[in-house]
Structure formats: C-alpha cells, structure tokens
C-alpha cells in the first residue's frame, strides 16, 4: 500500500505549547491568546526556515480570527468559530476528513465559510480540526484506529463547549465529512440524551467511506442521523466492505446512504464544489491558478499519440521501434506521485505540473492564448452570474480523445 502524500503532517517544525487560558475566560480573551500563540508559531517556523508553515500560521493570527482552541505543534489542532457562539440559535460543527491540517487549512476553512454564508448569522459554525487526520492514500485512512482517539477528542470538545459559553439548550449539529464520519459515528454513543451536556440534535454524515457500523441504530444516539452524498462523490465508487486482515480491520462497512443503513437520507447536491466556487468569487484565489487546476482536473484532451522511433523502455515495459503509443494526459494529470490528493479539485493548487497542454517540442502552440481565454471567460462568468448553478446533471460526449460537454444546463 502506498503511504501518504499527506500535506497535513509536517513533523519537526518548531511550535510553542498552546496558550494557557482559564476555562471560564471571556471569549475575547481566549481568541486573543490563541492569536498571539499563532503569531509566535509563525515566528518560530520562520526562524526554522519552514516558510510554508510560517505563512499558514501567520494567517491564523489575523485580528478577525477566533480560535477556541489552537495548537500549532505537529499537524496542528484547532477549533475556529465563524459567527457569535453566545447569541447563535444553532451551532454547526464541521468534522473534517483525511488530509486536513494547518498546512491545508484554507481548504477546510473555505468549506466552513461557504456553510456559514449559506446558513446565515443565526448559526455559528465551528471548524473543528481536533484530531490528526490520516492521509487519503494511507492505511490509517482505511482503518478505524485513529478514529477512536479522534472520537474521544470530539466528545471532550463537546463537553467544553458549555464552558466556552454555548448555552446548554442550543442545538448542535455535527457535520462529518469522509473520514470525519467514521469519527462522528464512534463519538455518537449517548449524544443527544438530556444528560449529555451539549445538546447534539443532528449528526450528518456525508461523503462517507462507511462508518464502521452496519446500521444507524448501532450508533446508539438520540440525535437524528443523516447521510448524504453528492452524485459524483468518488467515495461512492469505493467498495464498502469491511475485512479482517492481519488482525486489523480494513474499511468501514456499509455506505450510510444506503436504505439498509437506516439513516435519514438527503441529497448532498451534485458535488459541484461550492466551496471552490465561493473561493473563486471572493478573489482569494488568482484566476490564473484556478485555470491551471481546472485544466488538470478535467483534462480537455485525454489522449494523444506518438510513434516510437527507437526501442525504449518505460516503467519496465519494452516498447519496440515503430509502435504507436497513446499518451493518456487525463490519467497523468491524476497521478498520485505527481499531485497531492489528485482526485480533489483544489483551485488554490500551485504545485501543478499538469500535461493538459502537452509537453516537449509539440507543446501546445496556442497555450498562452488558451490560458488568456479561459481566465477571461471564467472571470466574466463568476462576476456576471453570481447565482450560477446547475439545473441538471451535465452530459458528456462519448469521445475518447476530446473530453467535451454535450449539454450543460444552468440557472443564472
Ligand atoms: C484549452 C485549450 C487547449 C488545449 C487543452 C490544447 C491542448 C493541446 C495539446 C495537448 C497539444 C499537444 C499535442 C501533442 O502532444 O501532439 C496541443 C498542440 C497544439 N495546439 Fe493546443 N490546446 C488548446 C488551445 C489551443 C489554441 C487556442 C491554439 C491556437 C490558437 C492551439 C494550437 C495548437 C497547435 C498548433 C498545436 C501543435 C503544436 C505542435 O505540434 O508543435 N491550441 N494543444
């Protein structure tokens, strides 16, 4: 098995111990202490030459950031509040899945911001990065071990919420994504009972690889259990099996969106990356960077051919002179050895050596023009169609070489 590409884990970058804040300290004091701690973490990372980490934590020290908890050591543990915890009618806690850490935090935050925007000011959103998430392509992502520790952390965070001033009567929903759904399922036991302190009313599992349980009832929670998945979620393609291998359990069992699991099912949309669109609209991501990622993620030309002029060997395969070979650009653009988490659309991706415009002496002659046209048209589209959304599932042409749309029906 291949071991992680996790951008999340950066061992060895020095960081201060978390700020000590009295349990009952006012929120403003708590937030200020964690910002100062983030500032100190940025200074230490910079001094150690870890510039990427320094930049990432410096952003977290900005005056408008509100961390209930903050620890920059290792992959990082944080709980950030969007909105007002004291006056909110409801609280939604986002529990992330694999490959989330301080270094990849902006992606997680964008999801939380998009959710907060959608739910409005009466709902406070907490982006809870309270556990060491596994790398997507790692054994840890297929085994529940890490989720057990994480579930304990989540439960203890839920207990602390009342000391942070969240009224015990405020309904709290857990929104648990991918591996986060395994964590929530393990934390669910007893949540939602009147004696459990924080009032968890709903547990929402989406993009789940399975929860480790065969039925929602096994979660033994009084909270409502929801399950959803976008139409194009790759998790749907993962076989939902659970096997015992070498004394450890691999996989998480049935998909919670199946009727047999017994959760309340909802449509999680088309998997249309609303957080990415929101980030593009907000101007956080340069259009030129987004264009490169869109070229990579959905390669317009999937295949080109070459004739082999002399015997060669590629990846242990001998290709004799005179052969015709097909180069699969679409596949190369999802190569896990070249791209971190290749199946994820990340418009802020800067390390992006895609081959959508070819390579070598036949490199696309029109590349600069194509890039200009794409940036100009996407720029106009997001500016002039703020309500743009899909009406129906896009339909693609069948061709093997050119990946193009047959039909794209949208509302503006
Ligand atoms: C998103 C838009 C575009 C994509 C994805 C694209 C993709 C490619 C690719 C993959 C190749 C390499 C083919 C190979 O390896 O044999 C190529 C070559 C080429 N492209 Fe593009 N292209 C685009 C736009 C354009 C535009 C706008 C023009 C002209 C104005 C253009 C003109 C050419 C030419 C002339 C070549 C052949 C270069 C050579 O063989 O030396 N392309 N393109």
Write a brief structural summary.
This protein has 412 residues and is α/β, with parallel strands linked by helices.
SSE blueprint and pairings:
Layout (H helix, E strand, L loop, with lengths): L26 H21 L3 H10 L6 E5 L5 E6 L7 E6 L9 H15 L3 E7 L15 H19 L7 E7 L1 H9 L11 E8 L17 E6 L13 E3 L2 E3 L13 E4 L6 H9 L4 H11 L5 E5 L4 E3 L2 E3 L4 E5 H4 L34 H18 L4 E2 L4 E2 L8 E3 L2 E2 L1
Parallel strand pairs: 3-4, 3-5, 5-6, 6-7, 7-10
Antiparallel strand pairs: 1-2, 2-4, 8-9, 11-14, 12-13, 15-18, 16-17
Helix pairs in contact: 1-2, 3-6, 4-5, 7-9
Bound molecules: protoporphyrin IX containing FE.
The site of protoporphyrin IX containing FE (HEM) has 12 residues, from α9.
Strand order of the largest sheet: 1-2-4-3-5-6-7-10
Give every kind of bound small molecule, once each: protoporphyrin IX containing FE
Q: Give the averaged pLDDT, no decimals.
A: 85
How many beta-strand segments?
A: 18
Largest β-sheet summary = 8 strands, mixed
Low-confidence stretches: 1-10
